[in-house]
Design brief:
The chain has 350 residues and is an alpha+beta fold. It has three domains: 129 residues; 40 residues, no CATH class; 143 residues, Alpha-macroglobulin, receptor-binding domain (Immunoglobulin-like, Sandwich), CATH 2.60.40.690. It has seven helices and 16 strands. A six-stranded antiparallel sheet has the order 4-15-14-8-11-10, with no helix packed on it. A four-stranded antiparallel sheet has the order 5-7-12-9, with no helix packed on it. Strand 14 and strand 15 form a beta hairpin.
Length: 350
């Protein structure tokens, strides 16, 4: 379960900090929230404290700023401010680096953000983390460090103070060692890309459920056996169901089999779909491509919404049927993948 606390809008504390940065601090409002700490979230305490420091009120700063770092875990928002764990803790680090870079919490927060860097999904998270970590890196501008990049016992490259990018096939499946000499701090990261061979998509539902069903356009009958006929017009029904919580910025990706084509009613008005869904899906944006249909929408908790579109069966043969997927663009916990299989397109019959 979740514990809900009534707090002041974070935008208010953020605004106080921005005003203080500009030398126009609103001391009266700052004092109001200082006297009512129960209205200030843990991450915004750093913003309020930083506002005092920027105005030269150091006694108030030390009264408000936490004495030790405890990671905050706000509910991840999929819209509006895109508040999240990474965003909130990065803001805390940014404030400390701005007003008190020697604070003992700085190194702890840097380590926390670095360990959770794979959870940065939104631009808000990446921008605040980049801003804070960039300030941290600038503290080591005078570092005198050299690093040997050793691959399987042999030196492949060397870092001597300037940014270094190492891209080499020798890194694949190798033992990589970084050997440092000198004094100071250096940050590094690595990235691996590729497609796994014969890797199947794991079908599961997490906070959301997506389902796809095919029907005959003329008969209205559900197609159970994944057998279709060349030239046939079929209806695809998409059902999106939310569990527990609403979510914004949901994208549905329906990849179509190689033997199908999406029927565009704007090109052929005669095939315009007349089926009326009971609970129509509100589509904020739709992208029709050669191999898929993309729908951008919102998830409604404990409710199922429907969307219909037309497909034309074009080529005979046996084809892979990809999964249909739904996921929140800024929160990977919200995802659903379902419906992989094989279809057969048979010779047209009258």
């Amino acid at each position: 379960g979740r514990t809900v606390h009534k707090i002041a809008n974070k935008e208010i504390l953020y605004s106080l900090y921005v005003l203080a940065l500009a030398g126009e601090g609103d001391i009266a409002t700052m004092n109001y929230y200082k006297a009512r700490p129960h209205l200030v979230s843990a991450d915004m305490r750093y913003m309020l404290a930083g506002s005092y420091a920027l105005m030269g009120r150091w006694n108030s700063y030390y009264e408000v700023v936490p004495s030790s770092f405890e990671p905050v875990h706000p509910v991840r928002l999929t819209g509006c401010s895109f508040d999240s764990d990474i965003r909130a803790n990065a803001i805390m680090l940014n404030v400390l680096l701005e007003v008190e870079p020697t604070n003992k919490q700085v190194q702890v927060i840097i380590k926390y953000l670095s360990r959770n860097s794979n959870s940065m999904y939104s631009t808000q998270e990446r921008s605040f983390a980049f801003l804070a970590l960039g300030k941290a890196a600038s503290l080591n501008a005078d570092a005198n460090v050299s690093i040997d990049v050793i691959v399987n016992g042999n030196t492949l490259n060397k870092f001597s103070g300037k940014d270094l990018t190492v891209t080499n096939e020798k890194l694949n499946g190798a033992n990589v060692t970084l050997k440092a000499t000198g004094s100071g701090e250096v940050y590094y990261f690595w990235n691996a890309e590729g497609v796994k061979v014969n890797e199947k998509v794991k079908e599961e539902d997490s906070y959301v459920q997506i389902r796809r069903t095919y029907f005959g356009y003329k008969t209205g009958r559900k197609i159970f056996d994944n057998k279709f006929y060349q030239g046939e017009l079929i209806v695809c029904k998409i059902e999106l169901t939310g569990f527990g919580r609403d979510a914004e910025n949901i994208v549905i990706s329906d990849l179509i089999p190689a033997g199908f084509e999406i029927e565009n009613p704007r090109l052929n008005p005669a095939t315009e779909l007349t089926w009326v869904p009971k609970n129509p899906l509100r589509v904020d944006y739709m992208d029709i491509r050669d191999d898929r249909l993309l729908l951008f929408t919102k998830l409604n908790s404990n409710k199922t919404n429907e969307f219909y579109y037309l497909l034309r069966v074009v080529n005979q043969g046996t084809y892979q049927l990809p999964v249909i997927g739904a996921e929140a663009m800024y929160d990977q916990e919200y995802h659903s993948y379902h419906g992989a299989g094989v279809i057969k397109v048979l010779e047209r019959w009258e």
